[in-house]
Amino acid sequence: MTMVAVREVTRTYGKGATATAALRGVSFSVGEGHLVALRGRSGSGKTTLLNIVGGLDTPDSGSVRVAGKDVTGMPERERMRLRRESVAFIFQSFGLIPVLSAAENVGIPLRITGAAPRLREERVQLMLDIVGLREHARQRPGELSGGQQQRVAIARALAGRPQLLLADEPTGQLDSETAKQIMRLLRAVVLSEGVTALVATHDPSLIDIADSVLELEDGKIKPSLSTEREVALPSATPLPPGRRAGHPRRPAPPAPLAQPASPVTPAADPARHAGHISTTLHDRGIVGVEYDP
Questions:
Q1: pLDDT, tens only, 14-38
Q2: Which distant-in-sequence residues (6+ apart) come within 8 Å of 3 by Cβ?
Q3: pLDDT, tens digit, 9 for 90 and up, residues 82-116
Q4: pTM exceeds 0.85, yes or no
Q5: Which of 173, 171, 172, 175 is nearest to 187 (CA)?
Q6: What does the domain layout of the chain look like in residue ranges?
Q7: Overall fold of domain 2-102+161-292
């Protein structure tokens, strides 16, 4: 199944002499369950492309389909539902709420969707186990290292069982060794959760373990790097036949992909705290927090 299908997408900011073309006829497809690295220098259009795929922005022309749904043709209310139920984001700046513990941060998507408390607690514990932070569940972001904070952000993104994970430079604020650990963790959880991931990065650690690589240059896909290649997984095996996404298991020992990923080519066929906390929700998620002790 094709999870993401982008066709001839364009996006220009500004008008007249000051107009800047961020995307110029971008086309590609991503198969379900694949990890795709999106690379390119600053200003090449990576963030714009992720925002359009995730329904945070709309293109000037072209189309985007996610899990068979036409994102570009959706009214805003439907796009908000898509972001709440099917698409998750990981940001370079982590985006954790400082007054909440790690467990409480991970549980936010489940609260938004109204998950039952017992099921929410079980899912939060499972996600913290997967990212190796069960012993840090009660700590707040300020008590965690940068790498640990990004692990919490990954657990939060996956807690709601999304179909598509979009990550924008998730290791941009981390040292090289921690960045490698985070990228290997992404590889493992994508496989264990059956999620499709599109990750914008300059980090060679992800380039080496991604199923496929897309390179953006001046708003266009470079054909020479938009090719499929088989990779050895560092810490996980593919989901067995018949296993559905959203029913995770602990990652298995390293093993190569049984089959290479679908091509990614241009135009390819496709209550620890006191007081009250109120959050301000926006398209991109939680953008503001007010704490009343």
A1: 888 889 999 999 999 999 999 999 9
A2: 30, 31, 32, 33, 34, 66, 67, 163, 164, 196
A3: 988 899 998 878 889 999 999 999 999 999 888 99
A4: no
A5: 171
A6: 2-102+161-292
A7: Rossmann fold (3.40.50)
